[in-house]
Amino acid sequence: MYPYRLSLNPYPSSPTPTSDDTKVLGGSKHRNGRTAILSCIDDLSSKLSENPSQKDFRLVTVIQDVGSGKTHLAFHVRGLEQLSSKAAISYVDLAQIAPRSIESISSSVLRGFSDTHFSEFKKEIILYLKSKISKNPKKVKKIFGYGLLDSLTGKKIEERVTKCLADPTFIPNPSALEDVLGDDFSPSEVQVLRQIVESRLKEAFGKYKSLEEVIDYFSTLAKLTHKFLKKLTLIEIDEFDSDQEAISFVKAIINAHLPSTILMLILTPYSYEQIRSASNSVFDRLEKANYKIDLAGSNTPEEILDIVSEYIKYYDNGNCFNTTEENELAARVRVIYDEFQDFRNVRSMINILYHATENASSRNLFAIDEQALEDTIKGIYPGLRIRGSIMSVPVSEFIRLQKNYDDLQTLESDVKAAVKDLVNHASMTGKVVTLENESNSNGLDIVYNDSYGMKVAVSVVLNRGKASGPPITSKASSSSDVDKRVILTDSDLIAQKNSVRKSAIGASLKTSETVVNIDRSRMADLLYFSNKYKNNQIKDEDLERALALAKSIRIC
Q1: What letters, b where the CB count within 10 A reaches 16 and e where it falls short, cover 246-263?
Q2: How do the domains of the chain map onto residue ranges?
Q3: Which of 134, 331, 381, 494 is the residue whose CA sits 20 to 30 A from 452?
Q4: Other CB atoms closer than 10 Å to residue 300's CB: what's the count?
């Protein structure tokens, strides 16, 4: 059993989405993208007549950076049951086509349609041929192999047709098939229909070399798809870039305005700019797309938290994942997102949660806890460190420190102790001289003489950036005879942050005050150092880092 009483791990394990993974769609940006695509399909479907024309073409672009969920959205749309009766969808990943040529790209588009689509198409053609029995009985019977023996034994042609419908290996008589179809369709249409009935359409482009022939072929296929299945054609081309073969192919489709067709191009902002340089005409067409879906913002914390929750909700048949559980998981995931830029995208966060879910399951936990996340970080990102950390604090250690300091008073107390440990370490190197008997009075946390012989006082005042809270200026500011005062705080309300102010009492005191902002990573540095210092775990590489840390907060 998995957390939240799920029967399986809801998170994908593969770096690229599978059709099963993409059944889930979370995040308002992705949902809005889906809505736009469905709106385009509904709009075009409502306007299609019996004979679609070049007016019945739409262009859609989906643009955003790598890892933003563009491919996930394309796969999700392709798998929507509500579209099964409205659109025949082909998905093509240009990144998997090498070398690229008109033939290879065209063949990939045909292979991008599902086998189910062509099976349904073949069935409709067979039923159409069946309807021609009264008009051309001899030819139709020949198509289905209905012979004299069948007639003598009393079998009806309809029985033969039914058998052929259920036989995926059925191959009609080619000459009779072309004769019957030729009454209602053009030679090019007859060839396409024959390839479908003979189950060899996906190999069709061995004969087609010119771009013009390719476009004519897809135009014919789109018309026939609408005629026989009452569906429009949606071609999804992923990883579209400035490759000349791809640009030529896409430009030709757009210029031809394939009837009853939607062309959806999926690309990155970088590729978009590259296309501008490679082909102004194609770039101009992309700029004029009927629908431009920009997934910017899909990696914001709100979007990622929604996606994370949606995976669990999708598989939560027992409704065990309530609001409380969702909020608790969101708080744990938010810590990872806020502190580590490496995980500020959907793909990385989903990978972490997959492994964390497995960890929680192995420990028989009902929910994904901090330990599961910490163990995951250690296991799959063993060398990862906090970005900007002077002490090179491991990510797993940072998570441990964070979860232990929800109480502001405890955090402030431990930061004060860490500063004292850092000053003591600096005194061992001769950088400062501690004055223990003068600290812990008048609001001072530690007092020492720096390398210039100046008397320095340090105070730690934390309020976690709240609008209300203790004043950042220590009460010692007017009662202690010191040369320099350093106030360490995490307040976002510091007007005099990183400034030096003369005391208003008089120039004779010659006391200056420096306010230093310490963010979470700097507090983590202090706490991490303090733990190692107390446990005698300071190594050679830590010595210089500790002094650099002391300088960063103006201690020495």
Answers
A1: bbbbbebbbebbbbbbbb
A2: 3-9+299-384, 28-113+210-294, 119-197, 411-552
A3: 494
A4: 15
Residue 489, H or E segment? strand 484-489
Q: How many residues does the chain have?
A: 556
Phi-psi region of 460 (alpha: psi -120 to 50; beta: other; left: phi over 0): beta
Are the C-beta atoms of residues 224 and 189 closer than 8 Å to each other? Answer: yes
Q: How would you label 16-26 residue by residue, b for 16+ Cβ within 10 Å and e otherwise?
A: ebeeebbebbb
Tokens of 381: 């990102």
Cα separation, 58 vs 293, in Å, equals: 14
Q: Is 415 exposed, middle or buried (0-12, 13-18, 19+ CB in 10 A)?
A: buried
260 touches 56 (CB < 8 A): yes
Q: Which residues contact 305 (CB under 8 A, 6 or more apart)?
A: 330, 333, 334, 337
Looking at the structure, give the CATH architecture of the domain made up of residues 3-9+299-384.
Answer: Orthogonal Bundle (1.10)
Q: Are 459 and 476 in contact (CB under 8 A)?
A: yes
- Measure the CA–CA gap between 459 and 476, rounded to whole angstroms: 9
DSSP helix/strand/coil, 516 = strand
Rounded distance between C-alpha atoms, residue 352 and residue 395, angstroms: 13
- Name the pairing type of β-strands 446-449 and 455-461: antiparallel
One-letter amino acid for residue 23 of the chain: K
From first to last of its 556 residues, the chain has per-residue pLDDT tens of 899 999 999 999 887 888 888 999 999 999 999 999 999 999 999 988 777 777 899 999 999 988 788 999 999 999 999 999 999 999 999 999 999 999 999 999 999 999 999 999 999 999 999 999 989 889 999 999 887 777 777 788 888 888 888 888 888 999 999 999 999 999 999 999 999 999 888 776 666 678 999 999 999 999 999 999 999 999 999 999 999 999 999 999 999 999 999 999 999 999 999 999 999 999 999 999 999 999 988 889 999 999 999 999 999 988 889 999 999 999 889 888 887 777 888 888 999 999 999 999 999 999 999 889 888 988 888 777 777 788 888 776 777 777 666 677 888 889 999 999 999 888 888 888 877 655 555 567 888 988 888 898 998 888 755 444 444 444 444 445 788 889 998 875 443 444 444 443 333 445 678 889 888 888 889 999 999 999 998 888 888 899 999 999 988 8
Q: Which residues of 201-223 are buried (b: 16+ CB within 10 A; e: fewer)?
A: bbebbeebeebeebbebbbbbbb
Q: Using CA of residue 291, residue 246, residue 108, residue 215, what is the dihedral sign?
A: positive
